[in-house]
Structures are given as structure tokens and as C-alpha cells.
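User: Before I run my own analysis I want an independent prediction to cross-check against. Here's the chain; please return only the C-alpha cells and, at the end, one sentence I can use as a sanity check.
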Amino acid sequence: MPQPEEQHQDRPAPSGPDTGGGPGPGPGPGSRADTDSEAAVAARQARRLTDVVTRLRRALRSSIRTDYPWESLPMAQVELLQTLAAAPMRVGELAARQRLAPNTVSGLVGRLLEAGFVDRQPDPGDRRTARIALTEAGHRQLADWQRAHERRMAAALASLSPADRGLVMQALPGLEHLADALGDPVEEPAGRRSAAGA
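Assistant: C-alpha cells:
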């Protein structure tokens, strides 16, 4: 009859991920390695998209100087006019929408007031404050700026091959959704909201 020690020696060594006695199963779907790989791909895609958007914006801003007196309407002021084209707003509301400091927006509004592109209107909800609204001159200036951009963009699109132009147009719906996702309002602390609303 075999001794207990012999039975113990004949028993196969355990294996598995907890023992180191065998290879064990490999990482399955959803493992950390898969997650790291997906994160790396997403980071590369985001980096490439950011680079392309930055180059596109810089190229458009540079090329439009041939058609539009850029110095008369810097981009920061254009963005305020675009926001005000939808509806008059208080300075605090503009600051929150543009994600800028209220004093920065106040300075920009001051220059637009001097140029005659905006004016101050009484706020129906609070007589102690005023809303900033586009004037007729502001609407015309914004329309001129928009037409200049459209001309430059149309010329650039026409220079592309039909295949490349088709790819650009096919990408527009996805880019619009991306812009919506990036533009979702960010919840701000109550203290900052109250300061901005002044």
C-alpha cells in the first residue's frame, strides 16, 4: 500500500493565475490591456483632430486678411458679436457663455461700444442692469465678416479634388455633433455664477 508521502508526490502541481504553476487564461475582452489600448487610440485621434482644427482655424484667420480688414475686428470681438446676434445679453451672461472673465468681456464690450457695433439696452428683468445688443452697424460688420470667410472657404474647397471635397462634406455632421458636445454648458459654482451675473 503506497505511503501518504508517495501519493503527495504523484499529485500534479496546481496551475492557474494565482499560483504561478501554469500559464492560466490570458486577458479577455475588457481587460486593462484592452482599456489602455483604447485610451491610447482615443488620445491619438483627439491629438490629430486638435492639430487639424488648429491649423484650419489659423489658416482661415491668416488668409482672410486679404479680403477683410482684420485689425478692425479681432476674433475675440467677432465671437461676442456672433453670440449677441442671437439675443441681447448682460455682460455676466456673455462672460459665462464665452467662458471669459467678466472684466475681460467688459473691455471687449467697451471697444465694441466705441465702434458703434453694440449699444446698451435696459434689462426688462432688472432695471439696475443693462443688456448689450447689436446695432445695425454691428449686424452689417458681422455679415461682412461672414461673407469674407465664406468666400475664402469656397475658394479653398474648390481647389480640392472632388474626392477630398466629398470627404470634407461627409465629415460635417459628425463635426457638428462634436461641436455640440464641446459646447455643452459646464455647471459653475454658485458663487461664480452670482459674480458673473452682475
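Sanity check: Helices lie at 4-10, 32-63, 75-84, 91-98, 102-115, 136-158, 162-182, 190-196.
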